[in-house]
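Next up, sample data.

:::
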Amino acid sequence: ICGTVSNVTTYSERQYLQEPEDAYSVTATDALGNETLSYFKADGSPYRAEGATYPTATALDANGNRSELRTWRDETGQPDITRWHYDQASGLVTNKVYADGKGPVYTYTSDGRIASCTWARGATAAYAYTDTADGSVQAVNYSGTTPDITNRYDLAGRLVAVDDGAGTRTLSYNVKGQLTAETNSLAALSRVYDSLGRDTGYDLSLPGFSTEVFSVRYGYDGAGRLSLVTSALNGTSNTFEHSFVDGTALVTGMTNSAGLCWSRTYEPARNLIAAVSNFWNASSISSFSYENDALGRRTLRVDAAPALSATNVFAYNQRSEVTNAAMAAASYSYDYDDIGNRKVSSVDAVASSYTANSLNQYTSISGGLACSPEYDLDGNMTWDGKFSHTWDGENRRIRSEPGETVTNGSVMVENIYDYQNRRFKKVVSQLSGRGTGYPLDPSQPGTWSAIETRLFVWDGWNIAAEIIIDTLACSTNIHYYTWGLDLSGAIQGAGGVGGLLADTKVSASATDTYYPCYDGNGNVTEYLDDTGTVRSHYEYSAFGELTTQAGDLADTFTHRFSTKPFEVETGISKYQHRDYIPTLGRWASRDPLEELGGPHLAVFCENDPLNQIDALGEEVINLTSLGPNGGTVNVTLEGLSLCEIGKKGVVKIAFVFYTHWNVNNFSMTNDGAIVVDGKRLDVTRKEAYDAKLKRKMYTYSATTTIDGEECPASVDKSVDIFISWTKTDANHPNPGTHMIIASW
């Protein structure tokens, strides 16, 4: 598989094994000589991988279902085993059992829809469905205090109302089935479309907090690329214009009407960012220049700003995990076990040692980051060394409170979520009135009082507005966020990473707009006011730890590392689906996609956040494959040996497409194809709703025959897989692929 002449991955011919019968191995050697050895059974199903990857072994039951996954923290030691149990009649998963012998239990309706999920800690969710043909989710009833969800649909099967933890929301559609209005207890958002049915923006009002309407409009160039974004509030407008590499959708820059512009250049033969520069008119604000190795990994970054420059050097192991980062005057190093858990990390001369259990959870950390993390039975971190965390029936963090030493002035964070797992409300409370003798003297426990409440209004997966109620200052401020093309080249294709254009703050006395600057990873490095003055400056470690913060407003901005909300109270980066702890370099809970996201359920960006981003907290995007994440997806597999062992030479090729959206009510018409050496095959498509993952799933399969009576040992083929779609439900105006899984 080739990117450039210098970046070639070569595949060996099949090496047949003595056992299992007709099994074989293939060795892939990358451009730096790192070898990954993959083992396949006679039918082509993979069952083991080792070398320059996390070592895994998979077992299948008699029906071809995965029954066992083995991983190794030490490849010379004993494996950690995850098992799946199935209902024999239906083939549906009834139990998942992790290495500690615990896991969720599922039941199903007579027609194969999930009826209930019981988590290992006892929390339950029960599902009810409409009696229509598609069987949309009508209600989800949770045990405990997790708010239930009730959905209502019109006669066309469109979602028109939802009752959830955020209250009641209603949705309206036009005659084409496009979402035109969405209202909830906070906001009313009305959408606009052009004559071609393209999304051209929205109007947002916050009736209980403002009489103004915040308007956003999108414009398209002659090539159909979204190139122009305009925002307007209280008679003041801003325009943001994107530029592109000729003939492509690769974004090369953005210029706004206030004076900010940034440029992005790429390597000549690869879609790899070579440099990013931020300017205010003709004055340089910051710039980042990159050098990439043959695998596309960043080995050098040179930062430049007025009166400031820094050289950063990076190194990796054979699995492309970051092992060393010399960043300005600081030096970081990391050592991992065979499945990606840290064994040792160090910052300058301060080292930390980690102990991981069979669930790949850190149970003890000594040295600079000394703590003993704790978890519930479903893998949610309940103690991180500073805060105790409480989780609800959807494994969402609903409370973080200080742990061992709680004194007056300590703060607690509480979160409420909507039906799509988006945080709708955040409340920060402060302790006062606690007696010095507590808890031995229980008469003076003190009182937790709310000092700040933040309310979030969402446009898909981007926050459109944030209402901040400051109880101590007796003030209410509103932040309106304007979004453009993120690192994917689309709006929300990369979960908004690198896509925030402006933060407009409305207070009782003024309206001020601030503009973010970025590095090549979509991390916010500065915010500028409308005079071009730097009001905040941020620097991060390789894993997103905030290492430098400057500027009089640095504490006030929400979006920072990876353009995600930063929780100043806990140090957590709040992704849309999960919480990330930068100091530990891992997620606080398991991957909602389970093993579809990889064998390690808590590792962050495969320990390579210099070259990968996570869009929503469950999907890794490699920065070597930047491009638009909407419309059409193409996957080309060159030089693969497509051949089953046997006389007929019949090859089955299949891939799975998961929708991006965490709801059942997303329908679309699409077209998937499999092309072998230019010949389009007849494709069978199967549509289903994956209730566990909460997204639509489309499976495509096809067969082809190798010429000749006998199937030769190796036949090189070019396989092109692609899928395109047209929205029929505009609940989410910017759909994108979540994941494509190909097998052959």
